[in-house]
Protein 1
Amino acid sequence: QVQLVESGGGLVQPGGSLRLSCAASGITASINTMGWDRQAPGKQREFVASIRSAGDTYYAGSVKGRFTISRDNAKNTVYLQMNSLKPEDTAVYYCRSYSTMSWGQGTQVTVSS
């Protein structure tokens, strides 16, 4: 059974940083494409970033240059480092496993002064 558990969300001021973590079980993150999606209030869920087994990374245009997705194979954990946060980054962030079509429960990120 695949389980993805996100953590690291919270309230941060504009321009600040947060690092989200996604601990995976029942799946080996290093050999699967993993990613992050987000859903803002009243909006559809959207792609944020992904990382393939070979290490290739992809980003939505709105976060490119500010967010970095990475992976710790020993911990079977995927991270999303978010810098220069903006109010429009406010959303629930979901970890995703593409091969198993699984998502975590989400973690709230609020960017506000």
Note: The CA atoms of residues 37 and 47 lie 4 Å apart.
Protein 2
Amino acid sequence: VQLQAFGGGLVQAGGSLRLSCAASGRTSSIYGMGWFRQAPGKGREFVAAITWIGVLTYYADSVKGRFTISRDNAKNTVYLQMNSLKPEDTAVYYCAADAGTTYFSNTYYRADAYDYWGQGTLVTVSS
């Protein structure tokens, strides 16, 4: 599975961005997809996740109510709509695919549970 993330950029606080993550290859093996972020000098942080089949979504408390994860299976693409952005949302955002577990609902927040990663896209929120 190959993942390509794009859509990052510079936005003012309170603004919106939509990130996309296009999956290719053996997408039939995917159980779920997630978005993580890494701010300068910090570790990788879970943001949101979605099952590949069904409609289960998961969010970090810090983004709940502001970010929305969705997917388009016909396009093999997962989106992260980010609204009401804050300077603390500034980070490199990575998408990831879990193709190795059937217990995605228990592991979605763990970076080590994901098998494939995109290259990351930078989101900068100015105050």
Note: Residues 97 and 116 are 5 Å apart (CA to CA).
Protein 3
Amino acid sequence: QVQLVESGGGLVQPGGSLRLSCAASGLTLDDYAIGWFRQAPGEKREGVSAISVSDTYYADSVKGRFTISRDNAKNTVYLQMNSLKYEDTAVYYCAAARGLTTSLSMEAYWADSYGMDAWGEGTRVTVSM
């Protein structure tokens, strides 16, 4: 049974940084693309970033500010978020999709929230003074 557990959310001022973690169990990291969606109040869920065994994907809204990485030994994926803006405020969800490797395939899957094989419960990020 695949489980994804997020951590690292919190309150941060504009311009600040946070690092989110997604601890995965019940799967082999190399077999999946794992990444992040976010959902702000009243908005639809938005794909943010994903990482596979060989590639990464970033939404245009976070390119140059967010960095995704993975630690296979810990079965954990990280999202380093820098230069945070008010509009980054959302609940961030970790998700996994089996078999994706290329940036183009991750972009297609992260374009909407359907097709994921597993989801975490989410961690809240609030950017505010």
Note: DSSP finds one helix and eleven strands in the chain.
Protein 4
Amino acid sequence: QVQLGESGGGTVQPGGSLRLSCAAAGNNLEDYGIGWFRQAPGKEREGVACISTIDGDTYYADSVKGRFIISRDNAKKTVFLEMNNLQPEDTAVYYCAAKGPRGVGIYVLRLWILARGLQSDYWGQGTQVTVSS
């Protein structure tokens, strides 16, 4: 069992930055690939980025590539999403999710992102990000 909790959301102006955290309690974080997803009002959930369990390979959706950076600290059981040059279209509730098994590779995680988090093992409760002037 893993419990995930997001933090770091808030309101920023266009061009601003935020750093989201996804803290895990329970099993070791390195047993899971971790992904970030977002959902804006009236829209489908969208996969944003993911990071693999052991080697730290990453994948980004085209909409955030070059602006967002995902990283993980397994010792602290935390995954981060650094978001730069935020735009109004980034406004959404951001969720982190976990997908096993241990050692799951970036190819599978990429498909998981493209499938909007289908067949995730665990989800966090979400944190609101609002980009507005």
Note: Residues 4 and 24 are 5 Å apart (CA to CA).
